[in-house]
UniProtKB/TrEMBL annotation:
GO terms for molecular function: N4-(beta-N-acetylglucosaminyl)-L-asparaginase activity. InterPro entries: Ntn_hydrolases_N, Peptidase_T2. This is N(4)-(Beta-N-acetylglucosaminyl)-L-asparaginase. The keyword Transmembrane helix does not apply. GO terms for cellular component: lysosome. Keywords: Signal. It holds the Pfam family Asparaginase_2. Belongs to the Ntn-hydrolase family. Residues 1-24 form the signal peptide.
Length: 165
């Protein structure tokens, strides 16, 4: 139950909804997608992450890349302390992160769970989707994969997360 309560459901919804709406078609011309990025929370971190996703979408037209950019922004900014490093520690006192990305039109997904000592969970999940035959890698295997892909290994703990434990 504790693992479920710490999962950032709203962010997952934000990622899913933003990707779904970005795929929507206009009523005027069914060949032109309507670009949109949605967030469900109004705090500064989520708004900034949404802006970053929107800029990426406008610049590149890459919907999945925009979702990764937005989620990565939240991981970097620790949106409401439920996303990214410095979050609630696990039973052993270590902060871990997770991410799941889905590409509906191409029927692909990539995910990491219990990722340790790597801050960029969304980018690692994207790498799982693009560079492995797997859809989910967890624990030390996820950390090893991330390091092999060039991600930096560093502590996910902050003074706040140490106090939580």
């Amino acid at each position: 139950m504790a693992a479920i309560s710490k999962f950032p459901w709203c962010l997952a919804l934000w990622c899913s909804v933003s990707h779904a709406f970005a795929s929507a078609r206009s009523t005027k011309d069914d060949t032109e997608p309507i670009p949109i990025v949605v967030t469900t929370w109004a705090n500064q971190g989520f708004v900034a992450a949404t802006d970053r996703a929107w800029r990426h979408l406008q610049t590149t037209g890459d919907r999945l890349g925009a979702v990764v950019e937005g989620c990565s922004a939240c991981e970097e900014m620790q949106c409401d302390r439920s996303v990214g490093y410095g979050g609630s520690p696990d039973e052993s006192g270590e902060t871990t992160v997770e991410a799941l990305l889905m590409d509906g039109p191409r029927h692909r997904m990539g995910a990491v769970g219990d990722l340790r000592r790597v801050k960029s969970a969304s980018r690692v999940a994207y790498a799982v989707m693009n560079y492995t035959k797997h859809s989910l890698i967890v624990g030390e295997s996820a950390t090893k994969f991330a390091i092999e892909m060039g991600f930096t290994e560093e502590s996910l703990q902050t003074d706040e997360s140490k106090k939580m434990y």
